[in-house]
Amino acid sequence: MTTNRISSTLRGALLPLVAALVLAGCASTAELSSGVTTPVQFKENAATTVAATAAAPAQADGAWWRAFNDSTLDALVERAAVNNTSVQQAAARLAEARAIARTVDADRSVQVGLGAGANRGAGLDRGNGSKTPATLITAGANVSWELDLFGRLSGASNAAALDAGSREALLRSAKLAVQAEVAQSYLALRALDDERAIVRETVEAYRGTLSLTERRFRAGDLAELDVARVQTEMASTESDALALDRQRAQLEHALAVLTGDVASQFELKGADWTTTLPSIPAGLPSTVLERRPDVAAAQRTMQAAQSRVGVAKAAWFPSIALTGAGGYASSDLGDLFKWSARSWGVGALMSLPLLDGGRREAGVQGASAQLDGALASYREQVLVAFREVEDQLSALRLLEEQSAVQARAVASAKRATVLSDARYRNGYVSQLDLLDARRSELRNRRQALQVKSAQYQATVGLIRALGGGWEAPAVVGKVS
Questions:
Q1: What pLDDT, on the 0 to 100 scale, is given for residue 326?
Q2: DSSP assignment letter at 195
Q3: 3-state helix, strand, coil in the chain (%, to 5)
Q4: Nearest-angstrom CA–CA distance, 274 and 404
Q5: Does residue 7 fall inside a structural domain?
Q6: CB 3.0-4.6 Å disulfide test: which of 85, 165, 199, 203 passes with 300?
Q7: Domain total for the chain?
């Protein structure tokens, strides 16, 4: 009867522990997903992004910027890969995470150490009942190993390894961000060079018109108001040119920082803008999740948080460690290393906190809250990834249509300027009509150039949104 009661009591005490063990195992192995249904295709059809042009071939080793066929851009991106401080910081954080992972994983290994000590006191030799002060000198090796019966150590090691994997993905994300920023800054600078040329060409045209207007004013053919109008237009256009010079200087300084150079020593000379505008296929939506490093980083962070929930739940179970020691112990230093002074011992230690003031429960709740936050962050990253691709695809489609319309506007404006100039010289229209025609041409040419620049920016943005490439991933990760 007594035996049955004891057995029943033990079963009642162990059942909660077994149930908690099962829950801890489930928490560390259950598959989690973002909860976002991957669409079959993008809403914006990639085939209509660029009309009647073949898709650019995928670049080897992820060097997507080579699709633009610009040697200056290639050199800038390569310099940034080596010297950019954001990339260097991300690399340092990865090295730190890997070191932490090795430190955590070391707790699963056998720990071996050497030790020595000397103690003096009365009553050290309890066996002989001696109360005479004596000295005990020891030297030897200590060995310990914690049994990972409930997965606490392996869970912590797995979480640290996933943290390192997240940092590795963030390093790739930092490299991609820097590459895209370099490309967009460089392409914007080249667009500004062409826009500055248009504006300065217009300034020269206004200067010629002003000279002609002043001669006609002195001859009494025109009023002073006509001269003032031309002077106003020329000064306003010169101001625009200076504003463009300021923007170019700022972009040049930004490129210096991106490539790790001092702005005072960095110079990018003007050149003809012959950069190719590649056509980028969007591919399937699922490949975006597999390729984008920021999505992979968020997924690994979520998985690490999931492992830490299991670690927190494993704190409810006892920790068991095997220990051993071997060496020498003697009351006389001269006899310490004699064979007769040898000593050894083995043992096992078990620890199971019973009352901790709610510490373990709070640990589980905190780990669960971190998992909820990581899961929400992962889902947000997936949603942002799809939004960014759709943004750039729609931008490219609409910019292509806008470019065609703007090209017609430029052609009409140029024709109107030619006709107005001829009619003005023959006295059929006023000088104000000619100025209006030139303003219209300038405005339309600049708008056409800005649309072209926006197409380059959107193309780089699409490549970045796709994860730095448009080929199928070499290693397909399971991201859901």
A1: 79
A2: H
A3: 65, 10, 25
A4: 19
A5: no
A6: 165
A7: 2
